[in-house]
Design goal:
Structural class: mainly alpha
Order of helices and strands: HEHHEH
Strand order of the largest sheet: 1-2
Shape: elongated
Mean pLDDT: 80
Distance between the termini: 33 Å
Oligomer: single chain
Largest sheet: 2 strands, antiparallel
Number of domains: 1
Low-confidence stretches: none
Radius of gyration: 17 Å
Number of helices: 4
């Protein structure tokens, strides 16, 4: 899947774009898991982006760190690569389907936020005119 590029270079745009790309990567990993469910030696993949985001969340929210926020966001890109889940023995179709639905809802909500951000940018560029 092709990653989404940020509209601007501000922290919010980069973070929302990263969240969209994380959802895309998670969707791909889940789809791969479902496709390989009958393969005896296959181990499920996971995208552990949320855990990495939680580690730096305080520094992203604190406005004193705006200068280094871009570097923090760039460091999170490494969390988008799927890795083998060491705790899972085999794919559980029901669990993967639930993960897929949850991820789709998450993607839709982040996409709605992204669209609102774009609408605000369009309005600013047009000077408030429609």
């Amino acid at each position: 899947m092709t990653p989404i590029n940020p509209v601007s270079d501000d922290v919010t745009s980069r973070l929302v774009t990263l969240a969209l790309n994380a959802a895309l990567a998670r969707h791909g990993a889940i789809a791969t898991n479902i496709a390989n469910a009958n393969n005896e030696d296959y181990r499920p993949l996971r995208v552990d982006f949320d855990a990495q985001l939680a580690l730096v969340q305080g520094r992203l929210v604190d406005r004193r760190f705006d200068a280094s926020a871009a570097r923090l966001i760039d460091s999170l890109n490494g969390g988008l690569a799927p890795t083998v889940d060491p705790q899972a023995d085999k794919v559980q179709i029901d669990a993967e389907t639930a993960h897929m639905v949850q991820n789709a809802v998450h993607y839709q909500s982040v996409l709605a936020a992204y669209n609102k951000m774009l609408a605000l940018t369009r309005m600013a560029i047009s000077g408030g005119r429609q």
